């Protein structure tokens, strides 16, 4: 079998020998992300990365992840919520929700009970342990958010929240 060098030379290509890559001392010390920084979405993603990393550390002592925390809060705030309603509220597929609910149920933080009027549906409710853990986790997340946003005054926080709501509301258009 001919080498790639021979193939290139015999194919009539202009390149007669393989290109050699020369090592350089041009190691990038700072990545230029100026093009990306013109997009609000890029700033949102970078900010979310900061929030998410700190939130993961905050929830770790409770053995909760963002999704299990979200589900537990929604179930605690809405006892009797159906699985389909929770999936819609969390904007996740119902099969993915089952994994989250299995974890919460295994830890005895929630109960799944069949809805008497619809045997295919389950109503979700927190247990006492679930409510207690939820209260502690909400307090920790409140402290986490206050710590991360302490440099923003109330007007700035309100403006950011309003902007996020407008983006979310506008996503339905198209």
TrEMBL record:
<dbReference type="Pfam" id="PF01047">
    <property type="entry name" value="MarR"/>
</dbReference>
<feature type="region of interest" description="Disordered">
    <location>
        <begin position="1"/>
        <end position="20"/>
    </location>
</feature>
<dbReference type="GO" id="GO:0003700">
    <property type="term" value="F:DNA-binding transcription factor activity"/>
</dbReference>
<keyword id="KW-0238">DNA-binding</keyword>
<keyword id="KW-0804">Transcription</keyword>
<dbReference type="InterPro" id="IPR036390">
    <property type="entry name" value="WH_DNA-bd_sf"/>
</dbReference>
<keyword id="KW-0805">Transcription regulation</keyword>
<dbReference type="InterPro" id="IPR000835">
    <property type="entry name" value="HTH_MarR-typ"/>
</dbReference>
<feature type="compositionally biased region" description="Polar residues">
    <location>
        <begin position="1"/>
        <end position="12"/>
    </location>
</feature>
<protein>
    <submittedName>
        <fullName>Transcriptional regulator SlyA</fullName>
    </submittedName>
</protein>
<dbReference type="GO" id="GO:0003677">
    <property type="term" value="F:DNA binding"/>
</dbReference>
<dbReference type="InterPro" id="IPR036388">
    <property type="entry name" value="WH-like_DNA-bd_sf"/>
</dbReference>
<feature type="domain" description="HTH marR-type">
    <location>
        <begin position="37"/>
        <end position="172"/>
    </location>
</feature>
